[in-house]
Design brief:
The protein is of the alpha/beta class and 167 residues long. The protein has a single domain, classed as Rossmann fold. The protein contains five helices and six strands; from the N terminus they run βαββαβαβαβα. It starts with a strand and ends with a helix. Bound molecules: guanosine-5'-diphosphate and magnesium ion. The site of magnesium ion has 2 residues, from helix 1.
Amino acid sequence: RCGYVAIVGRPNVGKSTLLNHLVGEKIAAASRKPQTTRHRIRGVVTRGADQLVLVDTPGVDPSTPKLLGKVLNRTARATLDDVDGVVFVVEAGRWEAGDEQLAGWLAAGRRPVVLVINKVDKLKDKDVLLPFIDQVRGKLDFHDVVPLSALRGVNVDPLVTTLIDLL
Ligand code: GDP
Ligand code: MG
């Protein structure tokens, strides 16, 4: 199995940290799929015969004022519909305007979304985790929810399993 996955989330939630933990090799043409050139590949996760190609999604950063521009909006949405799955990264216990905006977008999209609740290691009170997950789950339908710590590499492997199952 081989497929494309976009990692989205507001700035500072830990997307780059997660990407670094996920990626074992950097290659330009991991797949012979024709749509490769339509995505900017950030890295590849290989597990046995399965391969996830992690791609950039232009314009999905909610801090970009141009997000409201119709053209960019259309480009990003087309990209999100062109991948096999989307990883929506949020920070445990912190829901902000950028998260809300992205959730609305993803709810309107056509691809399965896996919710990553990152930075669980930062939670002083672990009891806030379940209510927070419930809160976010109310925003849209998620294929799966994976709490993890990208920084410490905790629970990152189950995320890979979930994503491969999407393909
Ligand atoms: P991005 O803007 O979404 O790409 O976020 P970064 O990957 O650059 O991370 C933003 C900050 O959060 C950095 O200081 C990271 O070290 C920190 N960070 C990322 N993941 C975790 C995590 O799981 N736990 C903790 N405590 N900090 C994290
Ligand atoms: Mg980053």
